[in-house]
Structures
1.
Amino acid sequence: MAQQNVSRLANKVAVITASTDGIGFAIAQRLAAEGAKVVVSSRKPQNVEKAVNQLKSDGHSDVLGVKCHVSDANDRKKLFDETIKKFGKIDILVSNAAVNPTVGSVLDCSEEAWDKIFDVNVKASFLLAKEVTPLLRKQSSGSIIFMSSYAGLNPFPLLGAYSVSKTALFGLTKALSQDLASENITVNCVAPGIIKTKFSSAMYETEVARETALSMIPMRKLGEVEDISGIVAFLASNDGAYITGETIVASGGMPSRL
Ligand code: NAP
């Protein structure tokens, strides 16, 4: 891993959803490595326990684990309540959870799958941000970061509805950042390309899928979770303090804008 400024997030408290594996766990590792107290969470208590144990065995003592399915209002309340109980405040929210229960074009998506995708990927992100805002206001500063996707800019053909949900997060980032900018609370978004995790395994596990994926990426390599976690650390730190309403794309050169 690249050299890190270990004190950049000292005394900050970060809540990261869907953070027991993949990109979310890497974010928890990176924020902790930069000095933050981190709260990891996901749907399955055994995954939460495993992630907490891993972080502690890596030498991070200020770690809390809370079971939280982001679509469950009680779970979200517990996530924030337990964080306040243990650490006394929240400075950073990373809304990272997403589902994709269907493969196909937008027109292939059933109403049920559409509702689930928007419930987890968009509505829960909105509600988490809404619910954390009063807590950030108490600090008179804060950072909210949404995990979108490159697919939100240029929809992947087989990820139709998921891509639309990720586009919605760009709008949520813009709208919310305007509401909170004058209060020193930044709202930003990260749009990863294809990052090697369980979630994206269908895009690289077979030779054919991997070649197809690589053919789209000018850098000719898949992304690693650390390619995303460092961006989140930057946005959450003082180095990113004057950035709000923006999306950072990390896609190995897949074209995103003019
Ligand atoms: P991943 O490796 O499959 O990890 C998913 C994590 O989310 C696990 O910790 C899982 O734990 C948790 N989770 C799943 N559903 C949840 C829910 N409803 N509530 C709370 N936690 C939940 O996935 P990933 O690739 O890191 O993806 C993370 C984010 O990056 C997603 O928003 C995804 O859309 C985005 N992204 C990924 C890629 C990529 O190529 N990998 C590209 C662009 C964007 P439990 O099973 O215990 O809940």
Note: The longest helix spans residues 111-139.
2.
Amino acid sequence: MSARPSRRVDQARLWQRHEAMARLGATASGGVNRPALSDEDVAACRLLIRWGEAIGMQASRDVAGNVFLRLQGSDAAAAPVLSGSHLDSQPTGGKYDGVYGVLAALEACEAIVESGGRPRRSIDVVAWMNEEGSRFAPGMMGSAVFAGARSLADIGASVDNGGESVAGALARVATAMADVRLRPLGGSVHAYVEAHIEQGPLLERMGKTIGVVSGIQGKRTFRVSVVGEAAHAGTSRRAERRDALLAAVDMVKALAGRMHDPQDIVKFTVGQFTVTPNAPSVVPSAVSFSIDLRHPDSMLLRQLGDAIEGLCREAAGPCEVRVQELSTAMSLEFPSGMRQCIEAAAARLGLPHTELHSAAGHDARYLHGICPSGMVFIPCHLGITHNEAESITPEDATAGARVLADVLAELADRSA
Ligand code: HGY
Ligand code: MN
Ligand code: MN
């Protein structure tokens, strides 16, 4: 490999691309709303492909809705290096969650091209389908299917609030992107590196530019369905009601009590709460709510998650309740070899760096199951994220892309 590609990372180009992406699904408050497999998501993939093809990368997609750009290596038979993240967002998402990892990977490849280097292994930039899990639960569908951790049939059955299934949305997007080559699902991967904003305040607070991610905390997600009986708000006797909302509220209170810990390590969130028929003068007949439970200690995560169904049943009163676990992911540690490679690149570039654990979930979780994986974090202001006010600096974005460029170049040149 010729001169290190980090020297050719272009801050203006990287930042302009973030601003262009942010216009796709832009919200009035300065964030983005780019649901998975929506027109906005497809437009973002199209824009990524346009930028990649302009520097000679080959675009492809797979049946799980993942989109790839390949920088061809000299040894076509060698397993590629992958790098990327996601382009879908939360409904009131920020402009950088996920996007940064995809655009930093593209910038790293462009810098490798401009440095005159030709990697031995191909490098694939990837935009994983539905990392966020907001339109279709659970999240990380594209990377999970790519890694063989979920089946296409399994994710295809998930339905959004409007009644469209993932299978239906994937078919619609496949038609819209029929001109993009369809590649086989999965395949061997030499290594995976994902750049991402920290989604926490630690790097900024410590004055560090680069986070070498040691691992990702465990996460279990559930869907709780409470069934009662619709009744007239004025005539039905309260003693005879089967009020699904009051039962669901009792369940959430009982769960919040059980999940409370003074150290604030347990992360328990009810983010979605749907009432049916949601009419002011009708006693609710049904409530569906989500649970997002996280903890860095897998044993405690198991214990707490296993207590959920019993607590819901105890609080159900005259209603029925069904608890479904949608995803189960234990805490993971990235391999030391990958962490050392990222740490050495940051040190060579003289960038202040530290090792830290990821409290947020990432697609790297599933790639970790099939190849050596690692992550590079950059600061995000005050840790604000999953919020339209999310912000990063062009300088930090560039620093992260420089580390990524050198790490990808090094991994792509490795024979084993
Ligand atoms: O929820 C998460 O941890 C990720 O940001 N989707
Ligand atoms: Mn993300
Ligand atoms: Mn996110």
Note: The mean pLDDT is 97.
3.
Amino acid sequence: MTKEELWQATLAQLQFQISKANFATWFKGTKIASISKDNEVIIEVPNTFAKEWIENKYKDIILKIVHSIEPNIKSIVFIISKEKSKKEEEKVNKINENQLLFSDLKINPISNLSSKYTFENFIVGSFNELAYAACWAVSENPGTIYNPLFIYGGVGLGKTHLLQATGNKILNLWPNKKVKYTQAEEFITAIVENIKNNEIANLKKKLKDIDVLIIDDVQFFAGKDKTQEEFFHIFNYLYQNQKQIILSSDRPPKAIPAIEERLRSRFEGGMICDIGIPDFETRMAILKLKCEQNNINLMQEVLEYIASNIQTNIRELEGALNRLVIYSKINKKEITLEDAKKILENLISSPKKTTDFQTILKTVASFYNIKEEDILKNVRLKEIVKPRQIVMYFLREELKESYPSIGRKFKGKDHTTVMYACKQIEKLLKEDPTLNQELNLIRQRIYSASL
Ligand code: ADP
Ligand code: MG
């Protein structure tokens, strides 16, 4: 068996043991470089971050498969492809302005998609694996398997990236398909404008030509009744004609306030996937990918410092990296851990993040699309009572305030009312997993708001 055949046979087995998404991400461009005299297989991978990732996650499975095909083989090692490592050497600290930032914007005027978002530059870990696999599947078979596809997750965790990558991939596979990406807010404005000018029929006609409609951040539909109605009709038309619809939101359909029931049930009618928070290893992989893409070399300990301190937002990871790059460019020096700590001081808050009453109140009110003053007043509507209890719960949990002091913030409510509210939320949390998700999303926003 030649080394090429051995690698083919290995990959053929491997792809059944790991998810399709991970297989595509990590094993493209790999090969067996050689097999040494003492039966060690030397596997070439395209870059450093792929090397580390594969070594950490897949080395054992690969060795097992290779060994089952060629029993002589007892060990494997990974090396970085030569062409690439030469390039890596050259790039040490050679940073120029064009490479500086991640926002090399090329937007396709028809689809509205930016070419910078691809599956190839998207890191997959357990936090987003399901969403990635669903998007991948949809891109291979638009309009047939998961329709609509609904992706949700907190701020800066890759929803827009994933949606746009899916659109780009579809255009790649089917250049004749009409793909349209739009932010919900833009889409709402377009609908409102067209209603005003009596041109809604025109807009609908244009939309009906589309094969794939991607709408980002649909939580903004909350409370926009007329728009929801028009969108409902557009949605039905596209859906009935097997056109693919892909949606994202910062929360699951159930938790979007002020949205018509029939629209919510449409959102829930296909596949719903969430994106969680990346673990440390994945955050490192993301940082390494970004360094790679931007031809930057940073010390391992600096990357580890960023990855351990920025945990819940990939956009902030990128932001931290940007700052270091700019600093190193201006000062023409390699960044040490001490430099990094100084430069990122106000981005990386102390390990225990802090917040305050106003932020909690504001965040909860905006999450549920209600007024802050209604939360504070004695309004007894169901839509208000739960958010009010949640504010009380957060004041207790996050700020460790006493029951009487919380009560005073709510027009002098008795401390037993506050106690009851906190108990009530704790009880609901045990019964209702979606409430748990909801509170996590709110908590994430509370802390990103007060950064
Ligand atoms: P969201 O829409 O959920 O707020 P974005 O898609 O805008 O988040 O992601 C924020 C930034 O992080 C973008 O620059 C995006 O390219 C990057 N990013 C997010 N997820 C990943 C990932 N899994 N791998 C690589 N980059 C990512
Ligand atoms: Mg987004």
Note: Residues 6 and 70 are 8 Å apart (CA to CA).
4.
Amino acid sequence: MEQYTPMIRQYLAIKAQYEDAFLFFRLGDFYEMFFEDATKASQLLEITLTSRDGGSSERIPMCGVPYHSAAAYIEQLIELGYKVAICEQTEDPKQAKGVVKREVVQLITPGTVMEGKGLHDKENNYIAALFCENDDTYSLAFCDLSTGESRTTALTAVEEVLNELSTLRAKEVVIAPDLEEEVKKVLKERLSVTLSHQDPLPEEDGFASLIKEVSAPAMRQATNLLFHYLHRTQKRSLTHLQPVEVYEVHQFMKIDFYSKRNLELTETIRSKNKKGSLLWLLDETMTAMGGRMLKQWIDRPLINQRQINERLSMVEKLLHAFFERQEIREMLKEVYDLERLAGRVAFGNVNSRDLIQLKKSLQQIPALKDLLLRIDNDEIQALSNKMNPCEELTDLLEQAFVDNPPLSVKEGGMIRDGFHAELDEYKDASRNGKDWIANLQQQERERTGIKSLKIGYNRIFGYYIEITKANLHLLQGSRYERKQTLANCERFITPELKEKETLILQATEKIIELEYELFIEIREQVKAFIPELQELSRLVSELDVLQCFAEVSEKRQYIRPELTDSRELVIKEGRHPVVEKVMDSQEYVPNDCFMNSEREMLLVTGPNMSGKSTYMRQVALTAIMAQIGCFVPAGEARLPIFDQVFTRIGAADDLISGQSTFMVEMLEAKNAITHATNQSLILFDEIGRGTSTYDGMALAQAIIEYIHEHIQAKTLFSTHYHELTVLEESLSQLKNVHVSAVEQNGRVVFLHKIKEGAADKSYGIHVAQLAELPRELIDRANEILAELEQKEQPDLLKQEKKPSNKIAESSGQLSFFSEPVAVSAQQPDHKEKKIIEELKSYDLLEMTPLDAMNALYTLQKKLKK
Ligand code: ADP
């Protein structure tokens, strides 16, 4: 230490307290970084690495960013998951004896950003804290610092913790340093969040009003960790934090993370974009806060019939009130993000333009309330009555600010005349001075006869009289003092001009000072309204989401679902909302789904690409849409309320956790089987596909039987294993349905229509044909198929085999396995069986024609041996 200069010693002392952050050390107009921070930041931010003498024998690596453009660099580091400690000079360098005092004024972390790119309008930015009580019981608290919303809940397994955190998309998790290493590892690996440590400290008095609803000691520990961390890092009063709300995960429909992803509720599987998701389809919200609430509703569908019906009734009324709805939409468009604004008021980073926006937003409220009263629905009227337009605040802002104030709050020009007497005096003085100068220009022009004479101003010389060189000779007799000579003119001053200048500048200085003081005062007054603004924001968001449901439902012709307590599920003319929107809706083939206590499970068969998973997803999406209170894409819908939805759809490798497709498949299956109840909905798409045929089929059958016997959840199970359709004979609550396809001129044409009974064959080769594999290969595959069809059926289902009730769509060939086939005398030997297996395992759609040719060639060679 001793070797370094005092400033570097100061740097090192501060850095020691912020080891896990980049320390932005204010030096004049720059934030500088030193040592390792500098080397690392210069790479990450692509800025030049230099060095500086710090007193030691070696020069110290250094890099820096200008103060005025620091925000963009900070954002970049935060996006990458790092933290940035902002260290400012906390005394005037002119007054300082020795090294200027410096202090960290804020630690910006991924979970605590308040502005900039890291914060998306329609997304919350959550920071969570996790407290582990003992093995497998956890309490989670979280908060969106930008909106002040905070909640807490208790969870009973790491899996649940992961689920909640990924639903919330928490960016940062605060933990006590003694949290088990195993849990830390899982959090890091599975969620890629920033982990931050906070020592458990006693509760502070200041938290009392925030945690009054939280009684469970473990939840209090979690919230306490969170609040201590926020105060330690943000170093300011966080008056906008809302009282922590306690919730339980089973108050809502549970949809685990895998299922949310599979159903593409808020983002698509492939591109991870909102576009193409249910959220994208539904998002007709007009405000940012409504957008965030919509996402929250989709993440947590309701399970309480009364609450669902309340929402549905409001949507219904709004749907029919077409004109009112359009007016509501227009008004909402003018409503600014009140919730985040309240946060920024508390944080102290608003300017007068924000406050004008606040005023304009509030001015919408009285008319909005009146409009809502015109709609005949108790809940909507209650919503209107609860909205407080905060008139006092509107008046204050109206009186205080001019309509178009400058961006900066430190250059005056914000406050309206008549708001403050002393300020008005300074303004007068400044205006009078300026008028005097304008008059002077006129007088001097007349006196000298120089028409181009003008009085200008710059920061260095103040006011001056400017004369072009050509006119200088006309100045004889003037008492002008020469001040500056330019290429084609000269600038002069006079004692009177300077006198006025002093008056004007003093007045301006006073104006700037006083306006800033008044601004801070008004901002403090706005602070007092934060709870009202937050409540208003909640009501406006709710209205926004409901009008959004009405808007989409009308546009896309959705209908109100009926929710019942029975075991019946009836969807007539149902559609997949997103697929329908993406394709021309004229072409979408609607389908029915009918389930009840005799039809708890549907086994869906049909060719690849015929629409099996679309059908299954549409049933799940319909249920979810109904339970968030939206109308549904169907002609008629009567649904039970599902407590949970599980899916196993598609073959997305979980690359992050490094698990294979098949492992993910099995994990998802396990998840459903361990947690589903008879009130749940399970979708299994092609389970068992990731392994060899017999293996896969055996597992699929066992899973179906297990659900049928032990769970009795409503289940849709699609499979390309035709052999499974015979299960209808032995399992009383399982029914076969299939997606129909017909052959026309040897080609398969998908009708996308769901019908009763099992499909007649699997059409795999036809799909290969559609994918335009070489003709020769297709012919050969047909030949092989024909040969195989003459041969054997697998042993697996032999003992159960009864005539199936399949419905044949075409008069095409008999299917491979599902028809009782005369077993030919010549059984394939072991080698042939293996070859058949191999052929069957080929995923033709994934092969290039050349690969397929080669594979076929090898198979044939083996057969000929
Ligand atoms: P499968 O699961 O049987 O392989 P998908 O459900 O993935 O088939 O559907 C394949 C494609 O067929 C979809 O991408 C969609 O374009 C189209 N499709 C599915 N269902 C319908 C339908 N009901 N109406 C029109 N097109 C549909």
Note: Residues 652-658, 794-825 have pLDDT under 50 and may be disordered.
